[in-house]
Amino acid sequence: MEQTTITLPSPSIGTTRFLPFIRFGKPGTGPKAYIQASLHADELPGMLVAHHLREQLAHIEQQGLLLGEVILVPAANPIGLAQTLLGSSQGRFDLRTGQNFNRLFHNLSEMVFSRVKSQLCADPLINQTRIRAAIRQCLAEQTVHDELSAQRLALMRLAADADVVIDLHCDCESVLHIYTGTPLWERAAPLAGLLDAKVALLETNSGDDPFDEACSRIWWDLAKLVDNQFPIPLACLAVTVELRGFSDVNHVMAEEDATAILDFLRLQGIIAGPLSRAVPLPCDPTPLAGCIPLTAPTSGLVVYLRELGETVKAGEPLIDLIDPVSGQVRQLLAPVDGIYFARENRRYVPPGTRLSKVAGKEALRYGSLLSA
């Protein structure tokens, strides 16, 4: 186990922040996994899972069971961790730029294609090696000066050549669910089963370049760019895991989630040894474009009428939105048939607040599919 820190550019005279990460195993000795937590710095369940992963990975390494390399970033956003306004953590958006910390990562597809198109051949493993070398080279040549851009670049340099990328997040209140690329579902399904994910949302381009897609979509983008003239493997399995809600920070769940992730790394040939249990069947996946938000038309007091994880039908009441002064009650209805899987944790909201999400089977939305 080796802990290293990356120094970020100073945002102001007299101030410097550092991005720490831990490496288990040695580079180049086998497949590589990258796991990060709390890119949205106020989403803390992943930070506790990373704590348990650190302990278990250290033991696995000592036993000689690590077959490759694992990079663990327990707190992936030191900028956001330092942002507090009137006592409340502000870890989702950069207060200097207003940008979401999990958006605008490097889309390298065209840049890498221009470097490798003359080097591709009929051997997918050779193509994979050459593409990964081009990814590393493109990122090495990037120059940035501000702190946020440097943080994004540092995370990409650590992760972009990995075989497996797991980005640990949480929602406001939710059941455990995952996001991954549509072409990756068959490989990601065992992780969904091991984590007991209730919803799996699939897309090839969700918009705004979140971290997981920046790592994985380059491979299917390149396959499209070469028009299937050369075999391009899906060499990076990237998954965003939403570890329930903000307040779901406890050792029992975190240890179970860490064990599930380690079992998945065993399936991927990164860790040796038997699984802790048989792999459960996964949930049925649904398109991210079928995830329909329910938005508050006015301000009001929020009363939820259904429990998370329930199957709902379009038109069924989900929320009472109450004006406590006039006594008016607006009943908000399920927008589609599907799984009611996430909701806002505030109980008094302004107009336009996304209150709930229902994962439906039919792709109904287009454009940028992620919330702000």
UniProtKB/TrEMBL annotation:
Cofactor(s) needed by this chain: Zn(2+)
Keyword terms: Hydrolase, Metal-binding, Zinc
Keyword rRNA processing attributed: no
Coiled coil regions in record: none
InterPro entries: AstE_AspA_cat, N-alpha-Ac-DABA_deacetylase
Domain of life: Bacteria
GO molecular function: hydrolase activity, acting on ester bonds; metal ion binding
Pfam families in the cross-refs: AstE_AspA_cat
Succinylglutamate desuccinylase/Aspartoacylase catalytic domain ranges (all copies): 30-201
Gene3D superfamilies: Zn peptidases (3.40.630.10)
Record-linked CDD domains: M14_PaAOTO_like (cd06250)
PANTHER family, per the entry: BLL3975 PROTEIN (PTHR37326)
Protein name: Succinylglutamate desuccinylase/aspartoacylase family protein
